[in-house]
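Dear colleagues,

As part of the handover before I leave the project, I'm documenting each prediction I ran so the next person doesn't have to rerun anything. This entry is a single chain, and its sequence is reproduced below.
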Amino acid sequence: MLIFIAIFTGLIINYLTWWMAFNSLLCAFAGLFLIMPSLLKLKFVDFKEVKNYKDIVGVNLFLNFLLIPIIFFSIGLLFFSDIFYIKYAFLLLWLLSSWWLVLSWVMKNNWNTKLAFLLFMINFIFFIVIFFPLNSFLQIEATEWKKLMESLIISTQFAHTMPAWADDFVCVFDSLKLPKCLSWLGSNASPIIAFFSIILFPFIISRFVLLSKKLEEAISSKIKYISSIATFFIVAYIFSLWQIRTILSFDSELIIKLILSLSLVYLIVYIISFFIYKYCFNNKEWISLFWVSSTRFVTLGLIFSFIYSSIFWYEFLLVFVLSYFVQIIFSQIFSQIINTSNNPRIN
């Protein structure tokens, strides 16, 4: 699969060249080549079709904004009650309902692409509404965590118990700077910057592209290839960054614990989504819901996590790196299950 080739390529570059530096233009590149082409499918008139799929939309909102977040946060709390910011990484992973990686399963499962995109956009709107208060909450938590780290560092009573990375953590937090390409947004750094460059910027560009029918048709007909090529370069670049080299130095116990917790949460979500598809409704429209509810927008989350990792350290980033492997493996397994199931409308 292309994604694994990209990951492997990035790791080789990382190893042979002693890593690459993060460039803030990655956000704009990802928004332009991953998000913008798909947004060309978004016509506001399409939202009228929601009335034809009220039951699917209702179940989608229940799963993605009630049941699944409870599952993700509960598993994060169960495994990492002592590392609060990893729980927040699980929350962000839940929040980003999938679209981009789901494209790779379209031809395999014969599902309703237009409905899937409609569900994605509905979820995306909810994401935008939820993101701002969630981001404010995370910033407050980060400030409190910074104060705690500073107090522990200057406290002789607890100096001997401080983790080795505490000094670096405070320095990283204090040195958090706005990417140069986004300096026009102000002087205060925030993950909201990523929102503007990854979401708002490509949306505006897509509206301009729609003004030219020839340009729209040219891009729309090549969305799959554009996404695949952009995916390869973005993922390879991400895995060649020095931050990835840093997280590889974490102890094996933490990595194993994260893999187990991610596997458990994905397994639960996939089983619930598959049960709803297979035993409750069992048609190709509900396959759309299955993929939109069971998979997460991992690459977009990974880009966001680079911003948050400057606040919550690199364990935050590690959650999204490992979720790549877990999600793709489970997606492949359940794709095979769907294709081999006794359903004449699918096979």
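Confidence is low (pLDDT under 50) at residues 156-189. The chain is about 75% helix and 0% strand.

All the best with the project,
I.
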